[in-house]
Predict the 3D structure of the following.
Amino acid sequence: MYYSEKNLVVDDLLYLVNSNGKMTSPKKISENNRIMQPRKLAEEQLDRLIGLDNVKESIYRRTAFYKVQSIAQQRGKKVNITTNMIFVGHPGTAKTTVARIYARYLYEMNLSKQFKFVECTRSDLVERWAGHTAKKTKEMVEKALGGVLFIDEAYSLVEDTRGGYGDEVINTLVSEIENHRGELTVILAGYPEEMEVFLNSNPGLRSRFSCVLHFEDYSIQELCDISHYVAVKNGYIMGEGVDEVLSDIFTKVINKENFGNGRYARNIVEEAMISSAYKNYKLEKGDEFLLENMSDDLLFTLQPEDFTAVESDK
């Protein structure tokens, strides 16, 4: 998937809060704003993400270093800026969202020529026919030149046998990173245990990806905040008592294997919206009480029972 300045949209997991801790809607980013406020847009987007404090701090530190290195380069000093990263975290911890914001950072700091974000997985890099994988990988790199190549579930590249097509991708990728130094940023993302195996699969990987960001699971409070954001984004508000129900639900599932974090919060709110709609639909009585005539408060307020109905279905 390819995102540019013209068609980038706010990801479903881009959760925004203002300085007072209250939800705010995402604002459309214009080219004029980018010119008038260099670097501020990416920094503002990152700062408003719910949670991820250690990730934010790491990126702030890195971008500060990039800025100093860029100044050093302008003053004739020899510098070596490496912008490649590895994102490690469980599902639904906003790895892709942060990668897109990082791509904007690099563009706004003139460390990449374009605001380009190319997202791919194993299937976009591996070809079923012998000898074609390297070509396919190079083509994907070519698409991302001048911007960021984001490889999700990168560990899947080494799930075949040694010497297989996955190895061909890794060897080609290591070579292409070296050949296009300064023209390409590569971000590899995946789950913690699997990524450790992946990094050990090729001696050239760690040296080219020295920065590893660990995305922690969301806390119960953060999951509740995310749920509120998803509701607001869809034109709903939460009724009294919903937070208590959400806390109970998240407490029961947060330690389960393959828990979806922010993705789970989004899904449960969307299911509650369906439960709410069906509940109100059953209230219809002839022409006297149609959905079309119901108030916004009735139609677009999620109540505790809407979430308990979802929980009972799972």
